[in-house]
Design brief:
Strand content: 5-15%
Structural class: little secondary structure
Order of helices and strands: EHEEEH
Number of domains: 1
Oligomer: single chain
Number of strands: 4
Helix content: under 10%
Number of helices: 2
Length: 90
């Protein structure tokens, strides 16, 4: 299975290491907060926003304020998209 180490969604910025730095945990940017990825329909039910139709994982906290999925580099995921190594070179 493809892992976060080679995924473009694994946040390599300093912001992506806000918590868990000592463990090399980083934020998966492919995993949105549930509340941000959905919206209310006319019957007051939650529905998926079109831009998240192919998303298979979501985060949620108790307040719907902010939620993040922290992973290690060896975490496997079906939402993996290859990191463009050439684009990262100066």
């Amino acid at each position: 299975m493809k892992t976060c180490d080679t995924c473009k969604h694994w946040d390599r910025s300093d912001d992506g290491k806000q918590y868990g730095t000592e463990l090399n945990l980083r934020i998966c940017r492919a995993c949105p907060a549930y509340f941000n990825a959905t919206e209310w329909d006319d019957e007051y039910n939650r529905r998926m926003k079109p831009e998240h139709a192919s998303t298979t994982a979501f985060c949620q906290d108790g307040s719907d304020y902010a939620a993040y999925l922290y992973t290690l580099g060896n975490h496997g995921c079906t939402m993996h998209e290859p990191l463009d190594v050439e684009a990262k070179k100066p």
